[in-house]
Amino acid sequence: MAPISQLLDKMTSDDKDFRYMAVNDLLAELTTPGFRLDDRIQPKVVSRLVSLLDDSNGEVQNIAVKCLPPLVEKVNENLVPKIINPLTKNVLSGNEQQRDIAAIGLKSVINFLAPGSTFSNKFGVQLVQQMTSALQPDTEDSVALEILDIIGDILSRFGLHLVGQHENTAAVLVKHLTHSRSAVRKRSVHTIGCIVPFSSPQVFSGLVQHISDGLTNPESNSDAKIYIQCIGVLCRQGGDTRIAPHLESLVPLVVNAASDEEDDELREGCIQAFESFARACPQQFATYLPNILTSSLECLQYDPNYNYDADDDDEMDFDEDEEEDDEYDDDDDDD
Predict the structure, then answer these.
(1) Which residues of 59-86 are buried (b: 16+ CB within 10 A; e: fewer)?
(2) How far is Cα 269 from Cα 271, in angstroms, rounded to an integer?
(3) Closest Cα partner for 238 from 270, 200, 191?
(4) Is 29 in contact with 71 (CB distance < 8 Å)?
(5) Residues 92 and 143: beta-carbon distance below 8 Å
(6) N or C: which end of the chain has fewer CB within 10 A?
(7) Which band of pLDDT confidence, cut at 50, 70 and 90, is reported for residue 146?
(8) What are the strands, taking DSSP E only, across the chain?
(9) Cα separations (Å) of 109 from 49, 100, 112, 138, 273?
(10) Alpha carbons 94 and 102: distance in angstroms, whole number
């Protein structure tokens, strides 16, 4: 294996194959147990790899991204921001190709860092603050989707150590539940689910209140469906002790939404929410079973493939036929 300094020189070659092999050799070194980067060469390695994330060749970009997680472990902590900051910048403001590569790199670093250390906690706080600040109503849809993904990864990895960020993060996420694009709304629901297992009772209650208010007077059926999906997530991620105190406010709202006979998808979502209630807190939910059974039986009797209007049309045709027969009978009598 060539010395690290030679590999760095090859990474600037005009030949894409040379650049690729140099980065591949560096990856082999970084993943070798016991390997240590000399302090003097660490800044050069970081700078060179970050620059290759914008390489003109996609294969070089991909192999450079794979180096980032083990590199984070090998370099001094003061150099890690020099890896993270360019990735974050490209996710938020780069072109599509830069954003895709940067998002992959950022997610891989997040999943590689061990939660609980002082550095990891500091990194998690800074990154979630950057991402939530960038998630605005006018954020480009593709950027918003990447941000939501990254926030979800941060919360899943470091959520227990980011309690101080939960309230603000939740407040930002719920604003995107009524986003104009369906993919953003659904991704927001998933990301909210990443907060729930670690959230305080106050943050959880705030989420329930927001969903209850939205479902009380939804502006559209699309909004109602998203709020119903959120309820399912709160049940699954929150468990019985958290969701049970809110059954009194949530169950009637879902029962009411299930009565909409014009939207099959909404009614199906309500039935799934009933199931989530029953699984999360079966004992407390038993009180509401009579109403739930009535609503569910009504849904069972409904066949979405049956044309109910046809019965009315047949009845009208039958009445018209009878009138025609009466007219013929009258004519016969006149004869």
Answers:
(1) ebbebbbbbbbbbbebbeeebbeebbeb
(2) 5
(3) 200
(4) no
(5) yes
(6) C
(7) very high
(8) none
(9) 14, 14, 5, 28, 35
(10) 9
Residues 55, 104: contact at Cβ < 8 Å? Answer: no
Task: Kindly state the greatest CA–CA separation across the chain.
Answer: 118
Give the separation between CA 171 and CA 161, rounded to whole angstroms.
Answer: 18
- Could you read off the pLDDT of 183-211 as tens digits, one per residue? 999 999 999 999 999 999 999 999 999 99
Residue 259 host element (H or E): none
DSSP letter string, 308-323: HHHHHHHHHHHHHHHH
- Pairwise CA distance, residues 2 & 278, whole Å: 62
Residue whose C-alpha is closest to residue 247's, from 301, 289, 299: 289
- Min mean pLDDT across 42-51, 61-70, 223-232, 294-303 is at 294-303
